Each structure stands twice: as C-alpha cells, then as structure tokens.
Amino acid sequence: MTIATVNPTSGKTEVILEPHAPREVDARIGQAHRAAAALRETTFAQRAEWMRRAAAFLEENAEGLGELITVEMGKPIAQSVAEVAKCAKAMRFYADHAEQFLADAPLADPAAVGAGSAWTRYEPLGVILAVMPWNYPLWQVIRFAAPALMAGNAGVLKHASNVPQCAMALDALFENAGFPAGSLRTLLIGGSEVAPVIADPRIAAVTLTGSEPAGRSVAAIAGQHIKKAVLELGGSDPFIVLASADVAEAARTAVRARINNNGQSCIAAKRFIVHTDVYDEFAREFTRLMAGLTVGDPLDAATEVGPLATESGRTELAELVEDARDKGASILTGGSAPDLDGWFYLPTVIADLPDDARLIQEEAFGPVASLYRARDDEDALRLANQTGFGLSSAVWTTDAEEEARFIAGIDAGAVFVNGMTVSYQELPFGGIKRSGFGRELAAVGQREFCNLKTVWKA
C-alpha cells in the first residue's frame, strides 16, 4: 500500500510516507484509549479552552494549510483556505455549544414512572474510529473530531492514502492545543487493514465518509462486532428548476453547485432537472457559464476548476461520459480532458441521456453535469427520486405550493430551496437510501457517539 502525496496538477509524487506497522497501529490505538479515559474526567470548560486554541492555530496557519490541501488533492487555493476557516468555525461552535447539547434532561413528571426524579444524560463512548476521504481533507475530519472530542471521546483517524500530510497535521493539532496526548491519532494504513481496527475492543464505534462499497464493508464489520456506525456515502443530488424559478439566478448557482471542489463533492448538484417551459433557457445559460470556466493550476487565484484528485478518478469519470456519448447522449460542452499535465477534465454538460446510460444511476465525481427535461412537476419529482441515492437536493421555485410539494416529496436527507446544498455546523447532515445512515453536525451529530443514559431515582 503506497501512502503518498501525488500532486494531481503535475502527476508527480512529492512525498512518500511509510505505513504504520501493526505494532505502531496497536500503540496508537492504546494512546487514544488512554486519552479517552483522561478526557472523561475533564470538564466542558477545559475541553472548550483547548478546542479554541486548536481553532486559533488553524486560522493562524490557514494559508500554509490551504496550500497543502491544494497540493495533495487539487482544489483551487481559495477553496482550500476557506476549508481551513470553516474547520475553525465549527470547532468554536462546538466549544460554545457542547455543554448545552449534552446537558442532562429531567423528566417533567417523574411521579408518572414512580420516581422522585428521573433524567437522561449523555456520556462519551470512548475511542471512535473515523475513516475519512480525500475530498475535504481537513473538514471531513474536523466535523467528526470537534463534536466527538468536546463530548469527551477520543478519535483514531484512518485518512485517505493520497492526503497523508493533511492526516499527520491533524494528528498533532489537538495535542498541541492542550488535549491529552493521543486524543486524535492518525493511522497510516491501507483500506484492507481497517477491519482489525474496527474489531479491536478498544474501539467503541466507527464513522465513515466515502464510497458505497466502503460503507457496506465497514457497516458489515461494525455490525459483526455490535458497534455503532455512522455512514455518509455517495450522492447524485438533484437540482430542480421549476417553471416559476428565477432561471438566470438558478443557472449561476447551478454552476457553483456543480464545480465546487472540482466537482468532487458528495453533496454537489449532479443531475439538473428542468421543467420543459424553462429548459431551453436554462440549458443555454448553464452551458455557456460552464464552458467559460477557467481550468488550470489550482494554486493560481484565477483558476476556477483544478484537476481531479487522482488519475483513477479521472478515468472513471471519462468512462461515464463515454458511455453516455456512445449511447446517444448530447455533449453540450466539454466531454474530454484538456491538453494539460495532471488529471484535468473539462467542465462538461450532457443532455438527452438514454435510460440505459450509467450516468442515470451512478455518481459522477467530477465537473460533469447531466441535464434532464421534465414534462411537468410530477415528472420532475419522479426524476429526482429515480436513483438509489438520497443525500441532499435543491429546488428552485417562487410558488409556495410547489415548494411545499417538493420539500415533502424529495427522498433525501436535505432540501435546499432557491440555493445550493452546503454543510453547516448548525444543521444536521446525512442521507437515506444508499447515501448512508446517521447524522453529522448540529446537536444530533454530536449525540451520535454518546451513550444516552436513563437515570431513575426513588
């Protein structure tokens, strides 16, 4: 298993790290286990102080960390720096709110259960294993780690093998801010070595953000060992434009929703479902804007779309486009790799997809958008729900009845009205169907990895 920084802009290997041997993995889990015991004895106020210090460190080093993200996975530098800032904001959010989110809740009428008093309380589970992807190499980890550590848990991180420098930066972050040594420990291991870590009795639960096959595997192993799991898997999110929508604004937002993070986001809009009355207008404007995007070096501030993170990712994306082309779909713009070093792919818009095209059911992880013409609102809702995914969605309308119908009718973990899907620490995040189960962020995300204990007192 190679654990290395391979710059996606050039295709050149820049750093190779040695994987952790089994003895080192065992030692690191042991460090996290001891840290979890220590954290149980600390107060919310103490953990909040440490968390704020860690957030300040991220802010002070945002430019350098942003460049590291871009070099490892290729997103435009402004987005990488913004990712660092988002992490710091979430850390402060949990420092400010964890005690409130996890406060004891007394039963209003304890006499109804024959008690003098009764209440529930949240307690940490212990060591949580996080299996995280490369597309948001800091944010994906922090949105797990900040609430988990503020609850009194410790964490063990198995990060993607192509962002090892980000992984090791996170390994030191919390300890340097004052948390007990081992509060978050990185394991430099391959995917095949995750199973014994989940099975380790010192691991209390597991959270994974990644592909559907990875989610199936992790859930099966966690279930075998009767351990809690939270899964955030793929998405093929619909972006629905109805006849009453502001079409120009919808098209502008649609571009951002599709190409953010070079199109490599589980919650990126991927299927653009447009009412036939405004389809031609939307398609023209959306295609024009997509074709005009600047593709190039992600360290250049003028670049809007950088390379895909991996060569295999670009190959898989190109195969989806070629499958659609071969089956008669229309390529309105893009549809190929530009003549650049690295793993670039042009922003692409595809229309007239036949029912047997792979893009109908499979996730396009890159700057490729699929256009669908809906006959009416009912047809738009049918198209929105025709995939096995159910992560998030967006609907554009100025009609209150349409809004209510689509909010209720879309099968997804979230619906954004007249906007694009974004994850916020204040709102729960997660999906249904093949997009996974459980929730991250907000109060409910923090409570996922706590023991909800009932207390009855005579």
Give a summary of the structure in a few sentences:
The protein has helices spanning 22-40, 44-60, 62-73, 77-101, 139-150, 164-176, 194-199, 212-224, 247-259, 276-291, 311-326, 377-384, 400-409, 442-447; strands spanning 3-7, 12-17, 105-106, 117-124, 127-131, 154-158, 184-186, 203-209, 228-232, 237-241, 269-275, 330-333, 348-351, 368-374, 389-390, 394-396, 416-417, 432-433, 436-437, 450-457.
Structure notes:
By secondary structure, the protein is an alpha/beta fold. It has two domains: 3-233 and 435-457, Aldehyde Dehydrogenase, Chain A, domain 1; 237-424, Aldehyde Dehydrogenase, Chain A, domain 2, CATH 3.40.309.10. The chain is built from 14 helices and 20 strands. The chain has a seven-stranded mixed sheet with strand order 12-13-14-11-10-16-17, sandwiched between helices. Strands 7-6-5-8-9-19 form a six-stranded mixed sheet, with helices on both faces. It has a three-stranded antiparallel sheet with strand order 3-4-20, with no helix packed on it. A hairpin with a 4-residue loop joins β1 (3-7) and β2. α2 runs antiparallel to α4, α3 packs across α4 and α4 (77-101) packs parallel to α5 (139-150).
